[in-house]
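Treating backbone geometry as a discrete language has practical consequences that deserve illustration. No coordinates are needed to read the tokens, only the vocabulary itself. For completeness, the protein is quoted in full, as a sequence line and a line of structure tokens:
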Amino acid sequence: MAKDFKDDLVKVLTPREIVSELDKYIVGQDQAKRSVAVALRNRWRRQQVPKELRDEIAPKNIIMIGPTGVGKTEIARRLANLARSPFLKVEATKFTEVGYVGRDVESMIRDLTELAVNMAKKEEQEKVKIKAQELAEERLLDILLPRRREEAQEGDEGDREKVLEVVRADKAEADSTREKLRRLLRSGKLDNRYVELETANKNIPMVEIFSGAGLEEMEFNIKEVFGNIFPTRKKKRRVKIPEALELLFQEESQKLIDMEKVTERAVRMTEQNGIIFLDELDKVAGSDSKYGPDVSREGVQRDLLPIVEGSTVTTKYGMVKTDHILFIAAGAFNVSKPSDLLPELQGRFPIRVELDSLTEEDFVRILKEPKNALITQYKALLETEGIELSFEESAVREIASIASKVNERMENIGARRLHTVMEKLLDEISFDAPDMDENKIVIDRKYVSDKLKDILEDENLSQYIL
């Protein structure tokens, strides 16, 4: 088992490769990228050390500190794609102290385990894909051309010999017809044909659970209990052949998968390779309030502490240890400070990374450089209407300048301000696009100034629109 897990981790990227991948989507924030790259690579390194030392190496948890809109969440999102491991993003504000109504912190481990089970299931499905496809194809051919042998079994005792002779005589012809159907099926010539399928339909009564923290899974467990009590009913559905093939493939792959093996692997992936991105941690930092919505903030921290330190959480897939799950926390910390967190919790996040505020030059780069740059997105959207949209360099700089000024004048929401500015700038073009005769539009500095001048000059108006 350990060998299989090591083989999975061999594919992990080097820190330099991770930073290079993050650079494609995120401008600047080099220190934060380096920290998450090293933390991710350390998961692989830990698996290479001798077993007696391996369990002693704790994950180097990270706190990313910086104002909103500078790339904290984006780093987490992109890291999830690179990690090839169970990754969960949660908001710290969603949790409450045990005893209050709401979600308890242990639910994040249950959610992470659920994600791992789905990942492991998909991997197993991929392994049995060819076999499942073959079985699904055979079942579909049986529906399209029922086997004659079944007819033979239906005949009474006296006619059995006669029927069997007919079956033998027609066997070659039936096989030939079946192969013709198989060729037609594979070439897609039967795609528009409908077939009738029987699918499982469990009638489980609706059960709604009103519970305190820690009982989120009760609803699922009750559904499982009812699912075992109530018989599975078959429901006939009329579907096109491609959909029928997909339904049959899912059924067959489900039969071929060993769920015990999937669960065992998923728990191992969660324990050894899981990553949790804990956003808005500053919102549960120390507060002077002794009542109202702030009353359970310190309680959330106290509940978080054993999870981050390492404890065992009960899930429907068994016990999951959290000792080696990597936690990456993030927060603006503009009202509170990292030092306002419980001292024990601070000690569990040894790496602190401060993200830089974005400058006007950063905005110019964000508009143009990333793979998913805003300008690239709007060009692609309007291209669907047959319009070629282009931006002059001066226009891009003007957009960046306006976004930067609005951030200074009002709440600084970082790169998110670019979305509001761009949407206001292009709303007229986006609305008229389907009816336009011209198919090429050039956005220059004058267009940007004219479109956004009034809003920028009127501070009250800009507060509502930008």
Remarks:
- The longest strand covers residues 194-202.
